[in-house]
């Protein structure tokens, strides 16, 4: 279903995202996914983002809506938007947000910013943030139809990753500066994929969960930047960052495995 505008670079990113989502899910379930692997994937993802502007699924999502609003034929955009979105949502429903965790370039650069050592501000109101992001999702879908506006471009990541200097680039640099003390502001407030994958993740069969070895020390809850480490949390905003696992003092108290029913 490719159109005349088929761009193989977009396909490279999509194949990378889907393949690595599956491989890393397997490594998580077998207990072999490590912090080192996560950092390696973050670096590769960032390089891919600058080199190929892919896998930029939030951008493809918006482009898909724009093409639909224009009544244009949609080739690659349809492929990478609908197929990519569908596969990644399905994978999220099985294994959680592997894509957001370390395979999305926009998420990866924010994750890199957050590793800069400085005092962190934990924004714990995940319900309010999700509502704001859902409103953005509505605006991103409605914008091209009602006003001919591609809202997401105003946040500057296309120019940033294409190394083009513009007002948008400055906007995204400001977002990255905010991402140094506050975890992933773009993902948690603005991104349409974030809204979709949060819902996709709710039924996730595999997720990080506590076992009977937990001694209720609360360290994981204090370390979690998205307020998803409590025993009853649904993990919709869990980015598989491993901070909870890394601070846990009891071996085996936090595992990635099938949720309890
Ligand atoms: S929430 Fe959006 S920007 Fe963030 S990692 Fe997920 S898809 Fe990428
Ligand atoms: S600290 Fe744990 S629960 Fe919180 S986002 Fe990271 S991996 Fe998920």
Automatic annotation (TrEMBL):
<keyword id="KW-0408">Iron</keyword>
<keyword id="KW-0411">Iron-sulfur</keyword>
<keyword id="KW-0812">Transmembrane</keyword>
<keyword id="KW-0249">Electron transport</keyword>
<keyword id="KW-0472">Membrane</keyword>
<keyword id="KW-1133">Transmembrane helix</keyword>
<feature type="transmembrane region" description="Helical">
    <location>
        <begin position="6"/>
        <end position="27"/>
    </location>
</feature>
<dbReference type="GO" id="GO:0016491">
    <property type="term" value="F:oxidoreductase activity"/>
</dbReference>
<feature type="transmembrane region" description="Helical">
    <location>
        <begin position="77"/>
        <end position="96"/>
    </location>
</feature>
<dbReference type="GO" id="GO:0046872">
    <property type="term" value="F:metal ion binding"/>
</dbReference>
<feature type="domain" description="4Fe-4S ferredoxin-type">
    <location>
        <begin position="204"/>
        <end position="234"/>
    </location>
</feature>
<feature type="domain" description="4Fe-4S ferredoxin-type">
    <location>
        <begin position="235"/>
        <end position="259"/>
    </location>
</feature>
<protein>
    <submittedName>
        <fullName>4Fe-4S binding protein</fullName>
    </submittedName>
</protein>
<dbReference type="Pfam" id="PF00037">
    <property type="entry name" value="Fer4"/>
</dbReference>
<keyword id="KW-0004">4Fe-4S</keyword>
<dbReference type="Pfam" id="PF12801">
    <property type="entry name" value="Fer4_5"/>
</dbReference>
<dbReference type="InterPro" id="IPR051684">
    <property type="entry name" value="Electron_Trans/Redox"/>
</dbReference>
<dbReference type="GO" id="GO:0051539">
    <property type="term" value="F:4 iron, 4 sulfur cluster binding"/>
</dbReference>
<dbReference type="InterPro" id="IPR017900">
    <property type="entry name" value="4Fe4S_Fe_S_CS"/>
</dbReference>
<dbReference type="InterPro" id="IPR017896">
    <property type="entry name" value="4Fe4S_Fe-S-bd"/>
</dbReference>
<feature type="transmembrane region" description="Helical">
    <location>
        <begin position="39"/>
        <end position="57"/>
    </location>
</feature>
<feature type="transmembrane region" description="Helical">
    <location>
        <begin position="134"/>
        <end position="157"/>
    </location>
</feature>
<keyword id="KW-0813">Transport</keyword>
<keyword id="KW-0479">Metal-binding</keyword>
<feature type="transmembrane region" description="Helical">
    <location>
        <begin position="163"/>
        <end position="183"/>
    </location>
</feature>
